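Field log, afternoon session.

UNIT: design team B
ACTIVITY: writing a sequence onto a fixed backbone
BACKBONE:
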Protein backbone atom coordinates (compact mmCIF):
# COMPACT_ATOMS: atom_id res chain seq x y z
CA UNK A 1 0.00 0.00 0.00
CA UNK A 2 1.51 3.32 -1.03
CA UNK A 3 0.94 6.62 0.68
CA UNK A 4 0.79 9.96 -1.10
CA UNK A 5 2.59 12.78 0.66
CA UNK A 6 0.13 15.56 1.48
CA UNK A 7 1.74 18.86 0.51
CA UNK A 8 0.44 22.40 0.59
CA UNK A 9 0.45 22.42 -3.22
CA UNK A 10 -1.70 19.25 -3.40
CA UNK A 11 -4.16 20.64 -0.85
CA UNK A 12 -4.39 23.95 -2.71
CA UNK A 13 -4.80 22.23 -6.09
CA UNK A 14 -7.55 20.01 -4.66
CA UNK A 15 -9.29 22.98 -3.10
CA UNK A 16 -9.24 24.92 -6.37
CA UNK A 17 -10.52 21.91 -8.31
CA UNK A 18 -13.29 21.32 -5.77
CA UNK A 19 -14.25 25.00 -5.80
CA UNK A 20 -14.43 25.02 -9.60
CA UNK A 21 -16.45 21.81 -9.58
CA UNK A 22 -18.94 23.07 -7.01
CA UNK A 23 -19.28 26.40 -8.83
CA UNK A 24 -20.04 24.57 -12.05
CA UNK A 25 -22.85 22.64 -10.35
CA UNK A 26 -24.29 25.64 -8.54
CA UNK A 27 -25.08 27.68 -11.67
CA UNK A 28 -26.51 31.10 -10.87
CA UNK A 29 -24.90 34.46 -11.42
CA UNK A 30 -22.13 35.15 -13.87
CA UNK A 31 -20.35 37.19 -11.20
CA UNK A 32 -18.98 40.69 -11.27
CA UNK A 33 -17.57 41.71 -14.61
CA UNK A 34 -15.94 44.79 -13.16
CA UNK A 35 -17.02 46.71 -16.26
CA UNK A 36 -19.69 49.27 -16.88
CA UNK A 37 -22.18 46.68 -18.06
CA UNK A 38 -21.96 47.68 -21.72
CA UNK A 39 -21.16 44.96 -24.18
CA UNK A 40 -20.80 44.64 -27.90
CA UNK A 41 -23.07 41.88 -29.02
CA UNK A 42 -23.30 42.29 -32.74
CA UNK A 43 -21.21 41.73 -35.81
CA UNK A 44 -17.95 39.88 -36.07
CA UNK A 45 -14.56 40.74 -34.71
CA UNK A 46 -11.04 39.97 -35.77
CA UNK A 47 -9.44 37.01 -34.04
CA UNK A 48 -5.87 38.11 -34.62
CA UNK A 49 -5.03 35.76 -37.49
CA UNK A 50 -6.82 37.54 -40.31
CA UNK A 51 -10.11 35.66 -39.89
CA UNK A 52 -13.18 36.30 -37.85
CA UNK A 53 -14.54 34.51 -34.84
CA UNK A 54 -17.72 33.67 -36.75
CA UNK A 55 -20.20 35.19 -34.32
CA UNK A 56 -23.12 37.33 -35.31
CA UNK A 57 -26.53 38.45 -34.14
CA UNK A 58 -27.14 38.82 -30.42
CA UNK A 59 -24.49 36.43 -29.11
CA UNK A 60 -21.12 37.72 -27.91
CA UNK A 61 -17.99 37.00 -29.98
CA UNK A 62 -16.65 33.50 -29.35
CA UNK A 63 -12.90 34.13 -29.87
CA UNK A 64 -12.74 30.56 -31.23
CA UNK A 65 -13.98 29.25 -27.87
CA UNK A 66 -11.13 30.80 -25.85
CA UNK A 67 -13.48 32.28 -23.22
CA UNK A 68 -15.96 29.36 -23.15
CA UNK A 69 -14.94 28.35 -19.61
CA UNK A 70 -14.79 31.91 -18.30
CA UNK A 71 -17.90 32.40 -16.16
CA UNK A 72 -17.94 36.22 -16.17
CA UNK A 73 -17.64 36.64 -19.95
CA UNK A 74 -20.87 38.01 -21.40
CA UNK A 75 -19.60 40.20 -24.23
CA UNK A 76 -16.94 42.71 -25.16
CA UNK A 77 -16.93 45.96 -23.19
CA UNK A 78 -16.41 48.87 -25.61
CA UNK A 79 -13.64 51.14 -24.31
CA UNK A 80 -12.67 52.62 -27.69
CA UNK A 81 -13.16 56.16 -26.36
CA UNK A 82 -10.59 55.70 -23.56
CA UNK A 83 -6.84 56.33 -23.65
CA UNK A 84 -6.38 54.10 -20.58
CA UNK A 85 -8.48 51.13 -19.48
CA UNK A 86 -8.28 49.33 -16.12
CA UNK A 87 -9.01 45.62 -15.76
CA UNK A 88 -9.46 44.13 -12.29
CA UNK A 89 -7.30 41.09 -11.50
CA UNK A 90 -9.07 38.84 -9.00
CA UNK A 91 -12.62 39.73 -10.07
CA UNK A 92 -15.41 37.40 -8.96
CA UNK A 93 -15.60 34.58 -11.50
CA UNK A 94 -15.03 30.88 -11.94
CA UNK A 95 -16.06 29.87 -8.41
CA UNK A 96 -14.22 32.59 -6.51
CA UNK A 97 -12.01 35.57 -7.23
CA UNK A 98 -10.49 33.92 -10.30
CA UNK A 99 -11.34 36.31 -13.11
CA UNK A 100 -10.43 39.47 -14.97
CA UNK A 101 -13.07 42.18 -14.87
CA UNK A 102 -14.14 42.72 -17.55
CA UNK A 103 -13.10 39.52 -19.30
CA UNK A 104 -13.03 41.15 -22.76
CA UNK A 105 -12.51 44.77 -23.82
CA UNK A 106 -12.33 46.60 -27.14
CA UNK A 107 -9.79 49.44 -27.40
CA UNK A 108 -8.15 51.54 -30.12
CA UNK A 109 -4.49 51.67 -31.13
CA UNK A 110 -2.32 53.44 -28.58
CA UNK A 111 -4.55 52.58 -25.61
CA UNK A 112 -2.81 51.54 -22.40
CA UNK A 113 -4.45 48.68 -20.54
CA UNK A 114 -3.72 48.60 -16.81
CA UNK A 115 -4.38 45.40 -14.89
CA UNK A 116 -4.93 46.18 -11.21
CA UNK A 117 -4.89 43.50 -8.51
CA UNK A 118 -7.64 43.64 -5.89
CA UNK A 119 -5.79 41.32 -3.50
CA UNK A 120 -8.40 38.53 -3.72
CA UNK A 121 -8.21 34.94 -4.93
CA UNK A 122 -4.56 34.09 -4.26
CA UNK A 123 -1.58 34.89 -6.48
CA UNK A 124 -2.39 35.97 -10.04
CA UNK A 125 -0.50 37.12 -13.11
CA UNK A 126 -1.24 38.27 -16.66
CA UNK A 127 0.37 36.31 -19.50
CA UNK A 128 -0.22 36.93 -23.21
CA UNK A 129 -0.94 33.68 -25.02
CA UNK A 130 1.40 34.81 -27.84
CA UNK A 131 4.24 35.51 -25.36
CA UNK A 132 4.31 39.27 -26.01
CA UNK A 133 3.98 40.19 -22.32
CA UNK A 134 3.94 38.63 -18.85
CA UNK A 135 3.56 40.10 -15.39
CA UNK A 136 4.91 38.68 -12.18
CA UNK A 137 2.66 36.60 -9.92
CA UNK A 138 1.44 38.73 -7.02
CA UNK A 139 -1.45 38.93 -4.59
CA UNK A 140 -0.97 42.47 -3.28
CA UNK A 141 -3.99 44.78 -3.65
CA UNK A 142 -3.16 47.85 -5.72
CA UNK A 143 -0.35 46.21 -7.71
CA UNK A 144 -0.54 47.14 -11.39
CA UNK A 145 0.84 45.93 -14.70
CA UNK A 146 0.33 47.85 -17.93
CA UNK A 147 0.66 47.30 -21.64
CA UNK A 148 0.19 49.82 -24.47
CA UNK A 149 -1.20 48.27 -27.64
CA UNK A 150 0.30 49.63 -30.87
CA UNK A 151 -0.85 46.91 -33.31
CA UNK A 152 -4.42 45.92 -34.24
CA UNK A 153 -5.54 42.40 -33.39
CA UNK A 154 -6.96 40.18 -30.70
CA UNK A 155 -4.74 39.51 -27.71
CA UNK A 156 -5.69 36.53 -25.57
CA UNK A 157 -4.23 36.31 -22.06
CA UNK A 158 -4.52 34.20 -18.92
CA UNK A 159 -3.43 33.70 -15.31
CA UNK A 160 -0.87 30.88 -15.09
CA UNK A 161 -2.09 29.33 -11.81
CA UNK A 162 -5.80 29.64 -12.72
CA UNK A 163 -5.96 29.23 -16.50
CA UNK A 164 -7.50 25.77 -16.27
CA UNK A 165 -10.47 27.03 -14.23
CA UNK A 166 -11.18 29.83 -16.71
CA UNK A 167 -9.15 32.87 -15.61
CA UNK A 168 -8.69 34.25 -19.11
CA UNK A 169 -9.23 37.51 -20.91
CA UNK A 170 -9.14 39.17 -24.32
CA UNK A 171 -8.19 42.64 -25.56
CA UNK A 172 -9.48 43.50 -29.03
CA UNK A 173 -7.36 46.31 -30.51
CA UNK A 174 -8.88 48.28 -33.42
CA UNK A 175 -7.43 50.96 -35.66
Amino acid sequence: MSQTKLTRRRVLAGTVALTASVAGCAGGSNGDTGGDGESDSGGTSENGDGGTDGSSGDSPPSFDGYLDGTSNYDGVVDQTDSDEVTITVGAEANGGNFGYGPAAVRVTLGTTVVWEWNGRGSFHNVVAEDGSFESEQVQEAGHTFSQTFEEPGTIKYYCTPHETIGMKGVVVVEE
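LOG NOTE: Confidence is low (pLDDT under 50) at residues 1-56.
NEXT ACTIVITY: expression trials, pending approval
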